Amino acid sequence: MGGGLTFLNKKTWHPGRMQNQEEKWKREQTAEKEAKKLAEIKTQIEQERQNEELQQVAVAAGVKPCAWPALHAGPRLQKDRVGLQWGRCKALRGRRRSARSGRAA
Fold first, then answer.
1. CA angle 43-45-46, nearest 5°?
2. What number of other Cβ atoms are within 10 A of residue 72's Cβ?
3. Three-state secondary structure of 2-56
4. How much is the pLDDT for 98?
5. Can you list the residues of the chain whose pLDDT is less than 50?
6. Which one, 1, 21, 30, 47, has least CB within 10 Å?
7. Are the beta carbons of 89 and 64 closer than 8 angstroms?
8. Distance between CA atoms of 44 and 59, rounded to whole angstroms?
């Protein structure tokens, strides 16, 4: 008949109880989400810091910034972000205008 210590699983403080395991799992999931958010925010801050540093260097060198800020937003343009942001964007603006006038014609 030996019931042993199985009654302990019914106690509210026992770690083997399903409700306690579920609560622990939920806390772990929220902690993981928070860690991901923090890592994402840290990378975003680092990218912004790098952009600001590059802008300061470019301004010190006498290069005028591009007036089209959407260029460096896409992942496709991340490779040449500095070139698009500083100096080479005039050619792209010309292409953009010609594409618009081609559609209207």
1. 65
2. 17
3. CCCCHHHHHCCCCCCCHHHHHHHHHHHHHHHHHHHHHHHHHHHHHHHHHHHHHHH
4. 56
5. 105
6. 1
7. no
8. 22
Q: How far is CA 2 from CA 5, 7, 9, 17, in A?
A: 9, 12, 16, 20
* Sequence spans of domains, the chain: 13-62, 64-105
Determine the Cα–Cα distance for residues 13 and 46; give it in Å rounded to an integer: 44
> Can you tell me which residue has the tokens 């993981």?
32
Rounded Cα distance between 68 and 76, Å, is 16
- What is residue 105's predicted lDDT score, i.e. its pLDDT? 45
Distance CA 39, CA 41 (A): 5
DSSP tag of 87: T
Angle (CA) 97 99 101, round 5°: 70
Q: What is the pTM of this model?
A: 0.51
User: How many angstroms separate the CA atoms of 81 and 69, rounded?
Assistant: 11
pLDDT at 21: 95
